[in-house]
Design goal:
mainly beta, Immunoglobulin-like, five-stranded antiparallel beta sheet, 3% helix
């Protein structure tokens, strides 16, 4: 998602936002938000005052993460706060690019967590017992399920 804003707007100017230099303006105003794809390389902004239009200001866009559904989910976590395998961060996997819901179930099929960061805790923040948990992820364009083992120090 690209969020642009004119930092020092002049009240008498009109600002126009373009996806490329040959298109019609896709928005006007001092702020603009657009979903960026790998096809968009620049955002162009012009200012108009009393019928005179400024040259384009070019804002280069670098797409650093587009969602790829070939992601892997770890099958073991050790939530002992040593900084290694403490959690599964689904927000990092999906990167805000895709709507998703993650659900973790205990061995009796009871829903225990729907957090986007699973660190071996239930939704109330209580530590889950060590053991195997079933997960289901439903996201735009697909779903995935599997198991993760929570290993706790004795």
């Amino acid at each position: 998602m690209f969020k642009g804003a004119i930092t020092s707007p002049d009240a008498s100017n009109t600002y126009s936002w373009y996806l490329d230099s040959n298109a019609t303006a896709t928005a006007t105003g001092t702020t603009w938000q657009v979903t960026v794809t790998d096809q968009i390389h620049n955002i162009y902004v012009t200012s108009t005052n009393s019928g005179c239009e400024s040259p384009f200001t070019i804002i280069p866009i670098q797409v650093s993460q587009l969602f790829n559904d070939h992601f892997e989910v770890p099958n073991v976590i050790t939530p002992n706060n040593d900084g290694v395998n403490d959690q599964i961060d689904f927000e990092a996997i999906f990167g805000g690019c895709v709507n998703y819901k993650v659900m973790f179930f205990n061995r009796w099929g009871l829903l225990v967590s729907t957090k986007s960061v699973f660190a071996g805790k239930d939704d109330s923040g209580k530590d889950l017992a060590g053991g195997v948990y079933f997960y289901k992820i439903v996201y735009d364009g697909g779903e995935r399920d599997g198991f993760v083992t929570v290993v706790r120090d004795k």
